[in-house]
Amino acid sequence: MQASKAVIPGGVNSPVRAFKSVGGTPRAMMRGQGAWLYDIDGNRYLDFCGSWGPLILGHTDADVVSAVTEQIRRGMTFGTVTELEFNLADLIVSHVDAVEKIRFVSSGTEAVMSAIRVARGFTGRDLILKFDGCYHGHADHLLVKAGSGSATFGQPSSAGVPRAFTGQTAVLPLDDEELLEEFFQQNGDKLAAVIIEGVPANNGLLIQRPEFMIRLQKLTRECGALLILDEVITGFRLGLQGATGHYQLKPDLITFGKVIGGGMPVGAFGGRADVMEKLSPLGPVYQAGTLSGNPVAMTAGLTTLRKLTDGQIYDQLKSKTAAFVDDLQKQLTGLPVQVVSIASIFWICFQPNLPRAADRIESSGIEKFNRIHGHLLDQGLYLPPSGYEVCFVSAAHTEEMLNDAADKITRTIHRSLGDQ
Ligand code: PMP
After folding, report:
1. Lower CB count within 10 Å: N or C terminus of the chain?
2. Which of 140, 233, 254, 342, when mutated, tests ligand 1's pocket best, judged by the most ligand atoms within 8 Å of its CB?
3. Is the predicted pLDDT of residue 419 greater than 70, yes or no?
């Protein structure tokens, strides 16, 4: 880790991996198998991070590994069209009602960046609206600060982002229809697109009320803007229809990443054919990528999604996650801790009431999580290294593993909160 810091800023290639919030030293991993991660010192951890969401089948699923290995022997990249990208596109289009056409990229950030560009190209408008607490990757125009209360426009949240790049991005709090109405009245005619996470899961798990999502879709449609549902986490995680199925939404565009790549670097954006046909080479909106639709990545995604489309995995994931979360919640009765979940995503929230908006998350609660993280690691549980991050259960987690984890987590929380 020290050696790595000499040549990689902070020793990491993505900041949250540095354990800055939770303290201690990041564990360098060298192998994954099913629900387990193994570090370079020979320690084993039950993995609740799942590489931040892609590993719905767990690590090194035998079918994925064998398909990918075979593909690698045939070639890692061709820079041409392939049958594989058609097969994955066809599978997604046939399962997700809102997607008529889709294009692959190499990350969630690229998917969102491209979806916003095509939405602007299609509508001929510039303004976009996002929500405080939703993360959509690190494209310049999405790194904006939230204000308090009402809409704010374009304060960069990162150094290196010119104000001019964020000036066309408005930010609103989640869970507030009144502010939505007011915003659309004032800005609807200038709005190109609204982007929201299928279920906000980057800043706690802020499950939105269906009424809020439906109102947002209606207002967006009425003003001629496009609704982009960012399903980088929720796509093929909540189920085959992701959050569109959960809320019965029909977004104009959807962004994907994580699960659809089966552990390889893949993102995608898709939706209405008339919008997607604005993309080059058919239309005037430029978008490209040397490794887009990469055959190895497409193979990993295709093998993963084919296993998921048989339907059983989602039911099993849902019931074992619900049982685990119920068990946790029961063992934590009387403490100001909530365990919230949807499908195979869960979040441990150290406050008495569950928040639905980012500004209602108590930072003292996040600190409480951060304080127990190292104790959980020492007991062989790998949870994401920040209290704002959600946890993932995979098909490889067994009931026995989850029961053992629930006992360890609750004992640690009792000890830590009891100490205060
Ligand atoms: N959108 C959402 C909802 C995400 O959760 C993420 C990543 N956590 C991204 C976009 C960006 O994806 P990537 O990290 O692959 O660029």
Report:
1. C
2. 233
3. no
| CB atoms inside a 10 Å sphere around CB 141 | 22
Ligand 1 centroid distance, CA of 267 (Å):
9
- The CA radius of gyration of the chain, in Å to the nearest whole number, is 21
Among 73, 48, 122, 107, smallest CA distance to 271 is for 122
What one-character DSSP code corresponds to residue 27?
Answer: P
The DSSP secondary structure of 289-354, one letter per residue, reads -TTTT-HHHHHHHHHHHHHHTTSHHHHHHHHHHHHHHHHHHHHTTTSS-EEEEETTEEEEE-SSS-
Judged against a pLDDT cut of 70, whether residue 307 lies above it is answered with yes
Q: Using 50, 70 and 90 to split pLDDT, how confident is the model at 152?
A: confident
Query: 148 C-alpha to center of ligand 1: Å?
Result: 24
Q: What is the pTM of this model?
A: 0.98
Amino acid identity for residue 375 in this structure: H
pLDDT tens track for 61-112? 999 999 999 999 999 999 999 999 999 999 999 999 999 999 999 999 999 9
| Burial (Cβ within 10 Å: 0-12, 13-18, ≥19) of residue 386 | middle
Q: Name residues contacting ligand 1 (CB within 6 A).
A: 52, 107-109, 112, 135-137, 197, 202, 230, 232-233, 257, 267
**Digit-coded pLDDT (tens) for 244-273:** 999 999 999 999 999 999 999 999 999 999
